[in-house]
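Lecture notes, part 5. Sequence design as translation. It can be helpful to think of inverse folding as translation between two languages: the language of shapes and the language of residues. The source text, in structure tokens, appears below.
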């Protein structure tokens, strides 16, 4: 049975007019990439943990701030071609959150204390391990701008969001 990750997708607006908060993957491999280099804040569901709790925990760990309160809409489970499974919940926030002091978007997440890091071998095959942030920035995008930025396995999430909010 594959491990399951949980993701929290913040959005404002509904249907095809929605804007979504996505995060750019951190580390030197992704540093100069944009297309297919963004992701929903997500991570593994721990044994005995419910998906909602895991999604909110991972959001806070990756972005360094707690997610806004609000009811979550279950967008479903999405399977990547690699076999990875991601369960996605969406939370609608007011558009006034964008640009406010409480906005989780940030052009440089490495300045936020407490963000999660991962150990990677860099340069490849060097044997040298370095700690890198799991994500290095987060930003709001309209759906059609977000689609080519997201990793392929997460692009169907945007269609599920439109269906759930139309």
């Amino acid at each position: 049975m594959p491990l399951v990750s949980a993701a929290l997708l913040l959005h404002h607006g509904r249907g095809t007019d929605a804007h979504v908060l996505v995060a750019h993957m951190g580390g030197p491999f992704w540093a100069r990439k944009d297309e297919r280099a963004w992701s929903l804040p997500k991570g593994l569901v721990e044994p005995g943990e419910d998906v909602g709790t895991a999604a909110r925990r991972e959001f806070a760990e990756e972005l360094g701030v707690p997610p806004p309160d609000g009811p979550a809409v279950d967008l479903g489970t999405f399977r990547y071609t690699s076999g990875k499974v991601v369960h996605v919940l969406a939370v609608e926030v007011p558009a006034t959150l964008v640009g406010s002091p409480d906005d989780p978007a940030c052009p440089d997440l490495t300045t936020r204390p407490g963000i999660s890091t991962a150990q990677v071998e860099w340069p490849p095959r060097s044997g040298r391990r370095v700690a890198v942030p799991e994500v290095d920035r987060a930003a709001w995008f309209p759906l059609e701008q977000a689609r080519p930025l997201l990793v392929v396995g997460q692009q169907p999430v945007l269609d599920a969001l439109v269906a759930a909010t139309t």
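The translated text above is only one of many valid answers, since several sequences can fold into similar shapes. The radius of gyration is 15 Å.
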